[in-house]
Amino acid sequence: MRLVVLLALGLFACRSDRGPSSQQTAAPAHAEAGPAGAPSTLPGAPASAQDPWAVAPKPASADDPPDLAARHKLAEAACPSVTGPYFFEIKKNGKTSWILGTRHLGVPLTKFPAPVQDAIAAAKLAVFEVAPDDDADMPEEKVVLPDVLGPALWKHYQELVGADTAQALESSAPAVAMLAMMAMYEDIGATLDTEIQHKVIAAHVPTRGLETSAFQDKLLNKILDLRMLKASIEQTKDRKELASESHDDLAQYCAGTDDTAGMDDDMRKDLLAAHYTEAELAKIDEEMVYARNADWIPKLEKLFTTDHVFIAVGADHLIGDRGVVALLKKRGYTVTRITK
């Protein structure tokens, strides 16, 4: 999997949409309000009359990133349904629980087979990477991107994300700028973890978190620093590459065919070309995946003393010999993958 991209997007997605109140819909970015109390149409005017305070939306341009409808269409093509979910039944001492490996963006719950839906409905406790009510955010250390990137990289960043998006991000944290680029072809309207959270909260199922929001924010800003942003811009040829990576990774997730945890070969090659060392890449893998897996195991074992626990964490945490599934098996749990 695209380790850094997907896990970072996942942390960001969990940051930006938590709890039932987060379902409110924001106005389009181009919409501007008129004077306070101004009517949307003039009293007595025909329906076709123009609002004198309205600002006409800017015509679409080839420079614009894909809109939400286009992203949704791309996600539908890459993943009509989830045929190979990273979904496991966990048994020990007469108690049964379940763990689902999620892709934090791009795939809704409705695409999963019935056993996943049934397990959520049967849950007596729901566990996520971060508890739904943990919405603390660390302050971001913003930089002026044109200054710190330099003319050439800033120009290429504008080419990748579009001039308007780049302008909106001129003063921002490197992590935010990188995520905006990597999420360009992701269906950001489909946030699986948040959808599950809404479902269990509506059913009055208690929830827990395996780590804190502050921990994730600190990790996000540490890994996605200015050096990583520069490397990502340098090694990304064009938007076609961004679209292809999002498509392929989503398709692999829905088919359940990726069984290698950590950084994939393409990303490793790109970062090595940007002068990261093998030791540095191994450290990123350790901090983003393996150390967190190990930290979660004793917490999960305590939670499994309750029957019918449903856990949802990023799929990359479940696979491989240092994944959560393998670690639970070593502790005597019977773990069975369920795909149908």
Give a verbal description of the structure.
By secondary structure, the protein is α/β, with parallel strands linked by helices. It has a domain at 3-18 and 65-140 and 185-229 and 241-337. 46% of the residues lie in helices and 11% in strands. The chain is built from 14 helices and eight strands. It has helices spanning 3-16, 68-78, 114-122, 145-149, 151-161, 163-168, 174-182, 192-202, 213-223, 226-235, 239-255, 265-273, 278-303, 324-330; strands at residues 86-92, 95-102, 125-128, 143-144, 171-172, 207-209, 309-314, 334-337. It has a six-stranded mixed sheet with strand order 6-3-7-2-1-8, sandwiched between helices. Strands 4-5 form a two-stranded antiparallel sheet. A hairpin with a 2-residue loop joins β1 and β2 (95-102). α1 packs across α9. The longest helix has 26 residues, at 278-303. It starts with a helix and ends with a strand. The model is unreliable at 18-55 (pLDDT under 50).
